[in-house]
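Try it yourself: sequence plus iron/sulfur cluster, in.
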Amino acid sequence: MESVLVSPANYNLFGFLPLFLVALLLTVGGITAFIYIAVRRLAPLLRANPDPRFDRIPERIFGFLRIWLLQWRHPRYIRAGVIHILLFAGFLVLGAQTISMMFWGISENFSLPFMSGPLGHVYNIIKNYAGTWVLIVVVIAAYRRAISKPERYLVPPKYGKDHTSEAILVLGFIATLMITENLFDASLIAANMQKGLHAEFRPPLTLVWFFTPLLKSASLSFLQGLHLVAYYIHDIIFFVFVCFLPFGKHFHVVTAIPNVFFKRLDTGTVKPVKHGVTDEQLDDLESFGVKKFEDFTWKHMLDFYTCVDCGRCSDNCPANAVGRPLSPRFISIKGRDYAFKHYPLNGKLVEGEPLIGSIYDEDEIWSCTTCGACEQECPVTIEYINKIVDLRRGMVDEGMVPQSLQKPLSALEKRGNPWGKMERKRADWAKDKEFAAETSVKLFEKKESADVLYFVDSISSFDDRMQEVAQSTARVLAAAGEDFGILGKTEKDSGHEARRFGEEMLFMDLRDQNSDAIAAFDPKKIVTSDPHAYNALKNDYTDMPPVEHISQTILQKVKSGQLKLKPVEDAAKVYTYHDPCYLGRHNKIYDEPREALDSIPGLRRVEMARYRDRSFCCGGGGLMLFYEPEEEQRMGVLRVQMADEAGANVIVTACPFCLVNMEDAIKVAGLDGKMEAIDLAELIDRHTAD
Ligand code: SF4
Ligand code: SF4
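Structure, out:
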């Protein structure tokens, strides 16, 4: 197309220096520098532990399209989400334009296949709007980062320096790119208009539409200068921006693509101690878990590079909320900083420094309840539970186990329960005279068999209060017509928490004993009222018959008419349901307990501010009950306050550990008499029609 201005590719500076050489140098230099930096950043990943993630490709593609391309998780924070989606969409649209501009400095006629003809015109209109909305969004984002500063962006002093300046610098780069690109176009259009030549269409209200009238009466030499200067500022900033990415959180622009593609596909379970090493070979391992940086898997290192520093994980982390020394965001940031420091761009790579005591603290790693809120929220699918469990495995291997956990762990090993109670007492709740007079529970230890195995697990077997939940569960199963029994003294703790506390060998021992007992009982299905047992049997054990949580059984039986419920005892009470982490987030069982509750005629139910996949952990179950963390308040207290704020006076849980924490928290929060907690099985038991 005829043009008044000389293009950057054809311009000779001072009449003899072809500018295309400068563009060529910038392009080759920029790309080479980026490749060099990226390869150096890859160095730790090449020394990392293996992690096979090339399985289930269709599922991975689907997840990638949903989470990366459609930015599925971003609107969970609506303002920040919309800003990010607009920026991301703008980047996708402007990618073709940016590549073209890079080459226009070398060859005036460079064109991507779809950028000429009618498709090119449509693209031009879209990219003009994209450039404009990106600039507007950049201004809003800069205001949020620098002035309004949402709390989750703040960096507590103990975690180092604030990252605002990096964010503002990058937003400045993007704004400059948008402005220079449009000045480059507008100067050409203005010059062509002056000479009556064809002028590109300027979509209304776009940057080019604003700039062109401002330049219409400028001299041709000014427009020529502006055209070239805008081009080269754009080119230089573009390569500076690209090469700056691997120096901080903006590396996610690149690493989020593989990170989301290789995301963890299964929730509930934890990674093996070492991929490719069988259970039988574990004894031969010289070291367990993560002790030094290189013990992480390559995917976990990629996570560190990908963290956007958005603070969503920590904003939802119950440990962080109650002042425990854990903020998941900084697990990533500290990991990334470690990689940058020990794997520098120039010079020797430093390997092998122990992580605990240098960048992570023991209490920080023990503070996690493995509730999964952080992983649920992260827009770029960063994992925490596996990393934390791996770090705990390393600490256990080094004998770094908190004092308060040593006794329950040793009791688990000796007696199969953390309280150290005698095995023969495990079924005492079922032998209680009053209870047994009404409900008969078959006992495997008496060689009785049944279709359904009720797996009770330790807390409901031994804790006085939770034995009431076990009895309610048994009565509900009996009322629903199930032929069921329990393992009795042959049942051991499911080992769920032992595994998550890094005691893999102990977990394997408990799992094997339970698996043998279950295989000998040979049930058609297993029912449990404990979400931790449910999760272990379903996701940690192998070759199990179908496993159900009691809430699922209740709902099926109500729907089939085998379980009939009478109207709510006290219609004035307002109920709310607390999602246990290992039922909800880890196993996606959200609806069944709610529907089971709603099937009690006349029951009034409200939702708390945080519910379903944003539920707030009660404080953790299993061994967490024995751990005494440093904290400002209890998670359970925050949770019962949420129930109070929702206008509820009964919290219904579906997990014995939640019930312990809630009942305790009600007292601590001073809500005794105003609020009560009850297990779903107990509530259904009370409302079973005769
Ligand atoms: S799993 Fe829960 S407690 Fe642990 S870091 Fe994540 S949000 Fe915090
Ligand atoms: S881990 Fe994910 S949610 Fe947490 S700060 Fe990083 S990007 Fe945000």
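One thing you can check immediately is this: Residues 574-686 form a domain with the Rossmann fold fold (CATH 3.40.50).
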